[in-house]
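re: that complex we talked abt at group meeting.

here r the seqs, copy pasted straight from the sheet so there may be weird spacing, ignore it
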Amino acid sequence: MPVLLDGRVCGHIHTSMGMPLVERLRYLKATDPKKVPQTLEIGISPPTNPHALPAVYMHSTLARMMRPVKYLPTGAIQLVGSLEQTYMEIACLPADVNPHTTHMEVNPTNILSLVASLTPFSDFNQSPRNMYQCQMGKQTMAIPFYSPYRSDNKVYKLQTPQKPISRTRNQDEYLMDEYPTGTNAIVAVTAYTGYDMEDAMIVNKSSFERGFAHASVYLTKEFPIQDGSATILSIHHPIIRSSNHHRVPHLDDSINVIVKIIIINCIIKSSIASSNHQLHHQIINCIIKSSIASSNHQLHHQIINCIIKSSIASSLHHHCILLASQHARRPSGDIISIISINCIISINCIIIRLQHQFILSFSLSSLPSMRGGHRAVRRWYSNYRLDGTKIEESLDDDGLPKVGVLLHKGDPVCVIVSESGDVEVNRHKIAEPAYVENVMLVGNPSARDAEPYLARVKLRLNRNPVIGDKFSSRHGQKGVLSFLYPQVDMPFTESGMTPDCLINPHAFPSRMTIGMLIEAMAGKAGAQHGIPMDASPFQYNNNRGLPDYDTSHPVTAVDFVGEQLRRAGFSSFGSETLYSGTSGRVLEAEIFFGVVYYQRLRHMVSDKYQVRTTGPMHALTHQPIKGRKQGGGIRLGEMERDSLLAHGTSFLLQDRLLHCSDEHQAYVCSRCGSLLSVISRPVASESTGAPKLAHVCRLCGPKGIVGTVTIPYVLKYLVNELAGMNIRLTMQASHV
Amino acid sequence: MTFSLEGTDASIANALRRVMIAETPTVAIHFVRIENNTSPLNDEMLSHRLGLIPIVYRGDVRQLNSNRDCDCQGNCARCSVEFELHVRNDGEDTIEVTSHDLRALSDMAVPLDDETLPRGILICKLGKFQEIRLTAIATKGVGKEHAKWSPVSTAVFQYEPSIRLNYRLLDELSPQDRQNFVGSCPARVFEIQDGRVVIPDVYRCTYTEECMRWAEQVGKPDLVTVKQLEPPRFRFSVETTGSLKPAEIVQSCLITIQEKIRKIEDLLVTKQEEQQLPQ
Ligand SMILES: [Zn+2]
Ligand SMILES: [Zn+2]
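got the structure back, here u go
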């Protein structure tokens, strides 16, 4: 098998010797760092593995992921890479060691990833819940970063975060306290009003008013000075931007521009190759004639480039440059003049002899169009028209909003004025009001005219909790805020505490997130004693009652935390007697009451709600369109239709599917039954002689009997489509 | 402050609690006009924090007009108190903006100044050259509308427990078991004095029923019974945020309840008059 170092084969070894080699190298890595560096990754893919080439892979380069494990032969800590560890025997606990085991985890929690290791008491949870938490931990509103200058498209930020009381060791390891993801909430587990059914969560209105889970969304809106999708690239290189624009042939003859360009390119190439000056001259003259006649930019560009290329190759410099400068003088567009000038300049370096001549033509032709920099029309951010009148009263002089103002839908955000006097007013398009967080102007300071080409306005949307927002504990227990319940109506404890939120006990039996219950107890004990609680997994004895119960091992988590609760004057199981907030009487059952770290998830109703009475319709079917953004409706599908039918609510069904959808009065000929044959034609009214529309059947002529029927508009569309397939659909219509 | 309430039932006790929390009027900052804010906190958050600072009103809060019903335009001295906050950090070190920096424009109200909080209530921190300049208007309101107007941090009543110890069974216990029994209560209701189990303060009991559980475990379920006293007696504890004194809260709460009762009385009288009119 080959032996590779940093991806290069450095030798071969017999397959049977691969493993002994690796073992020897690993031993040297542990004992003699001078011979084998500590950071060398020594991997072997065994010949039994069908998916990878059997080889010894060694990596010594920088910036590889490595993690520490215990090397059993010497007991030293060794760094292990990501490739080698897949083929290694690493024991998690001493009990897992077998004759093949070479390494052992320093700490059993190392089997967990970053997100997984942040779940407190995760060893008490049913494993799918830990998986759900790993998903949700990434959807929290939190403190994402500290830089005020970043301009991310959308950022979610929690305004009132806290460090968790129940914490794992990795919480400190990864500095998670600098980026907290939630709030320590006082939680009572009880079915109090019915507003906590089906994972709903009741939040104390006063807690909310005191700042519970307050958050904001930051949006960055960009207003480039150029229209459309202009980017930095397009401004510094206007040619790139224009290259795709003029594809429609606007030629002196019928040949497609692209084809023409290809042809010309070919000609030029061949002309460069040929040494016949006479021929060369002829070709170029021919091209130039045709190009002058054409008014297409793309073509011009190409031609001029061609001319230049050929001019360099040939001895016809003088001639070509004159032609190029003629082109530059043409008023057809700035792009061309820029290109020609570019060309002239590039030749300038080569042919000094002709300098005077083209500088003259350059100055004559191109200066007017050069004034606007590289742009076609100069545009700038301003709140004043060319005549000096103000455009938007609410904006600053630079056409941008003041920091801190509240923008409502339709308010101006950015005004761009152009040289030609055009005014472009960009408005706040989203329905939600937003505060202006900051305004940034982006320019290229190294450019000669360091004018900004982009304005960035960062907006701040207030997203304090509202009914329908999503919350979750760190145990895959997500829930939706169902009610902001007044503090006086919340149940209260003996000491006068009211919970921040209420959750339903039904959230526990089927999900078995015991870790959350222990977190509640630990949080409560930690809050009372004023200490953070270590909630790292695998540190308590979970085997009480089992045959292999090891009494020398630390106590169970419940005993440990229960004792702390007892010392704080609470019941050791975390439950408390609660009193009804409305009546003041004791609630008969003891209620589980503790402190759980709650996270606010970024799924919010304000981003999801959909409302429509009437609105935009689909052009083809005349039915309501779909999509929240477009103000569309929510589909009443087949299953919904079935349930309405089963309920016998046929009028409701008709209302949904016809009256509120694509109800249409169609003309039908009851003689031939066709929906398509009826046409309207103007005739003079019999009584007054005024012109009016008469509906006649084209198939039956005067014999036809035309009437109206109420049908869904799509039916008409269907009939048309069928007709296109030679299928005639007729209606048996009669007058009622 | 604690006081006890007798001769009534939970409904009255709970009414007192509810009115104290939700319907005792106080003054709190409700409008903020921000002139400059370059602090790390955004305007909404700054305003929210200002709103939560307890404001001590020097007059009778109940005499103050509600800003909504006042016949003035905007606000006036009869319905509001104005404050001013202007802090700018010209130094190198980060400074704290506290409730002490909030300056009242009239002498009718001040932000809470308590000896337990010598540095005041932290509003925000300012880095170099950062500045906050604003005026704030405090108005009257009740906790029902927003928690910032709630004058209490805790208002709660406890039912007086009736703890009956069976001394005959207690005497049967060994001294060690007696010690264990006393230790079983997390709230430390029981103590041993001269070898006897005594209850120094029944209100320590939080109805954890740990003692009953212990008794059951040792097979003497009749050793102790914990129940609510019949007829009930209550002990109220009222703690304040500082905007009112506890006694003022109770007083104000009683007036509110009186007003409510008077309103019902008046309605009953008018109803009676209406019924008598046709005859
Ligand atoms: Zn017909
Ligand atoms: Zn007034």
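couple things i noticed - The pocket of zinc ion (ligand 1) is lined by residues A 669, 671-672, 674, 677, 697, 699-700, 704 (CB under 6 Å). Chain A touches chain B at residues 159, 205-207, 209-211, 214, 216, 404, 435, 437, 460, 462, 486-488, 492, 494-497, 565-572, 576-577, 581-586 (CB under 8 Å).
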